[in-house]
Design a protein that fits this description.
GO molecular function: G protein-coupled receptor binding; neuropeptide hormone activity
Largest sheet: 3 strands, antiparallel
Strand content: over 45%
Keywords: Signal
Protein name: Burbeta
InterPro entries: Bursicon_suB (IPR034441), Cystine-knot_cytokine (IPR029034)
CATH architecture: Ribbon
CATH class: Mainly Beta
Number of strands: 7
CATH topology: Cystine Knot Cytokines, subunit B
Organism: Galleria mellonella
Shape: elongated
Number of domains: 1
């Protein structure tokens, strides 16, 4: 009986070490990147009024999270799957200004009212590992 208890304790300690190491290997982070944004504006009849574009610096989530599949006698598939994904913890909204605006003929717009366009976008403010499919945050 003593052997079984000490074996169980050793097994739990090994499992704890493996779990701590796997969490240390995660590297989900918020990374700045530059994207090209194009936004078109249409009138009430559905005709193109102007098209604006620009390079915008935004954040993105990037990295790896630890997932695992292990045999299980409890689940119907015979395996217990725990999947984790690197995704946003919080989104922030901000305005970006697009400065390259053109009319439907491709001519650059110069007048103050049409030469720039402000666009609202949402970007990750912070990223971390979440259980895949968990949208309840």
């Amino acid at each position: 009986m003593v052997f079984f208890k000490s074996f169980s304790i050793c097994l739990l300690e090994i499992l704890a070490i493996i779990l701590m190491k796997s969490y240390a290997d995660e590297n989900c982070e918020t990374v700045p990147t530059e994207i090209h944004v194009t936004k078109e504006e249409f009138d009430d009849m559905g005709r193109l009024v102007r098209s604006c574009s620009g390079e915008v610096n935004v954040n993105k989530c990037e990295g790896m999270c630890n997932s695992q599949v292990q045999p299980s006698v409890v689940t119907s598939t015979g395996f217990l799957k725990e999947c984790f994904c690197c995704r946003e913890n919080f989104l922030r909204e901000r305005l970006v200004t697009l400065t390259h605006c053109y009319d439907p003929d491709g001519l650059r717009l110069e007048d103050e009212d049409h030469a720039i366009m402000e666009v609202r976008l949402r970007e990750p403010d912070n990223c971390k590992c979440y259980k895949c499919g968990d949208f309840s945050r």
